[in-house]
Design a protein that fits this description.
Radius of gyration: 16 Å
Shape: globular
Mean pLDDT: 92
Helix content: 10-25%
């Protein structure tokens, strides 16, 4: 499968390393994997926090990033969100787990509100045939399913994670 330039992060399955969307290598400080959930912890991407934790839910088609200071969650220092949710496509081969950013993102401001962003990038990618209609449909379904779940979880990612998170089966839409 060809990689879309600037869209795919690679996580090595057996070594503490990965390759960012920008094709830059990075160190993985902690890697865990269980049914329905892949978690990595890596050094911070910018100043104001020490680490980034990324929880990837392949069945939901999302990756949730959280800023950490000494292992404790903190708001993003510049934008003040609690969690950054990427809509993603996940696949793997013998050596790597591939996490492709599918353009749409959701910012979660814990217990306050959420904000869906980058729909213009998504529309442009669809218009330019960088993604297929089937992929676009899946991304929109995953976005709606996640937003519905986060609303039912009182706008709390922690409640959502316990209620839905890594469960083997997704809830049916009403």
């Amino acid at each position: 499968m060809g990689l879309r330039p600037g869209r795919v992060q690679r996580i090595h399955k057996r070594e503490n390393r990965g390759i960012d969307r920008t094709n830059e290598p990075f160190v993985i400080e902690r890697f865990t994997r269980r049914q329905g959930l892949i978690t990595i912890r890596r050094p911070a991407l910018e100043g104001g926090y020490t680490q980034q934790m990324r929880e990837i839910y392949p069945q939901w088609g999302i990756g949730v990033s959280t800023c950490l200071v000494d292992g404790q969650p903190v708001k993003h220092p510049r934008l003040h969100f609690d969690h950054y949710v990427d809509l993603v496509k996940v696949w793997e081969d013998q050596d790597y787990i591939y996490v492709e950013d599918m353009y749409v993102d959701v910012l979660i401001f814990e217990r306050a509100y959420y904000h869906v962003i980058d729909l213009e990038e998504f529309g442009e990618a669809l218009y330019n045939r960088q993604i297929s209609a089937a992929e676009a449909s899946r991304v929109m379904e995953n976005t709606q399913r996640f937003v519905d779940g986060i609303k039912r979880s009182r706008l709390s990612y922690q409640v959502w994670k316990q209620k839905y998170g890594a469960r083997p089966h997704l809830p049916r839409r009403p």
